Amino acid sequence: MTTTAPRVDGRAIGLAHYASRAVLEHVLAPHGVTFLQFVTLRLASVTDGPAGETALIDGVAGTVKVDEAEVRRAIGDLHGAGLLTSEEPSGVRLTEAGRELYATAATETTAIADRLYAGIPEEDRSVAGRVLALVTERADAELAALRK
Length: 148
Hints:
Elements: H1 10-28, H2 35-45, E1 51-52, H3 53-64, H4 68-80, E2 84-87, E3 91-94, H5 96-117, H6 122-147
Antiparallel strand pairs: 1-3, 2-3
């Protein structure tokens, strides 16, 4: 008997997303950071120099599709935890503690991602990547139209 692979649809994408996110949140919990805070740290970490706070808020909100107020709270919490610091005139920068925490958690999550993707042929990953990029682009356009 042959089994047919399921078609990619919103449910399949959602199941993969939520399973992966649950793993990530489990890894982040001992570090005392949430998913949204980790995304914020990641975006701050890839910025050359201080990140403009408005650009950081827009980047995080656009990436995870949350309200800007939630991102502002995450930034405030990261400031309070000593992981971000203000940089004049209107920027933020990772502190050394923030950089260390991000690096440690990123290393842990990379090891898990390596296990999750182990044995999946590169060609399959490329096809899936193209499909997901197209779905993301279309969903972003739909969301923009709905928000107007």
